[in-house]
Amino acid sequence: MVRSVPEPVVDGYLALLADAVGTPATVLPTVNRSQAARHAPSRSGPPSTPTTSAPTRTQTGRRSVDPGQVVAGMPSTELVTPAAVQAVANGRRVRPVWENELGGITFEVGTDPQRCFVKWTPPTSGINLSHEVVRLSWAVAFTSVPRLLSQGADEAGSWIVTAALPGESAVSHRWKADPARAVRALGMGLRALHEALPVQTCPFSWSVEHRLDEVRGRAAAGRLHPDRWHESHWALDVRQALDVLADSPPVDQLVVCHGDACAPNTLLLEDGRLSGHVDLGELGAADRWADLAVATWSTEWNYGPGWDGSLLAAYGVDPDPERIAYYRLLWDLGP
Questions:
Q1: What is the pLDDT of residue 22?
Q2: Active site (catalytic) residues
Q3: pTM for the whole thing?
Q4: Nearest CA to 97 among 203, 37, 172?
């Protein structure tokens, strides 16, 4: 399939993407949607319909462009509970609450006040849970994130056990029915996270340079697949996408980013206040727009179009279409 676009278009592609933020992707050069979707393996990220919860990168890898396909979410089939999870439960109730196409499963174990969660992943998933372990252990001193209880690994997989936070996901049925309050809480919660975590002493990086090094390495190994990208990026091949990303915008404000600031990773209390954040495997210092670009995108996947401005207003910042466009493209090329 020929995917390349003329070089003059590549030169101005980020501006085109910026103009298209919040508008239909048809304003951009594109390829045949049905052909691209037909070749798209399952990846996590924005489903093409806002009626499903947006899978998140930490749990599931990346995005699928197959319209309506749910590649992560509540388990849809009967699952066998791994022996390691059964051992953690020690006779308590075990309920699978999230499954991804890479084979990773999150289980809820027990009931309050001893309720906990076990995130389990097989060796074939490519998910390194140790990244989340060290980040949780650092961040818990500054903000509301799950407290690490234990971790382990055997020949069948690896797992981490965390204490439960109160509340429920911002994409639960209750909050999807009240998107205005949910989106406002997402914006305020992300601002609170950025203000609470001390960037000067953060030992982790999620910078453009760090992420581009990873992307270029994956490109050199042939592990970038344009057919898996979001449709707004379908007009670019790998080389062209890397050319666009080589011209990064200056850092607006350096903060400690969540690294996967999609709506499902924010927990809300019954009254709409923030409870905390989960899935911190990519947490690190970066421009705040690296989080904001994905957080605003996630409102479209989960609540429908038109909520970008509400989230940014709740965060307390004016829209920055060029930075949003840049960081969405960088996100799309990530692992």
A1: 55
A2: 260
A3: 0.82
A4: 172
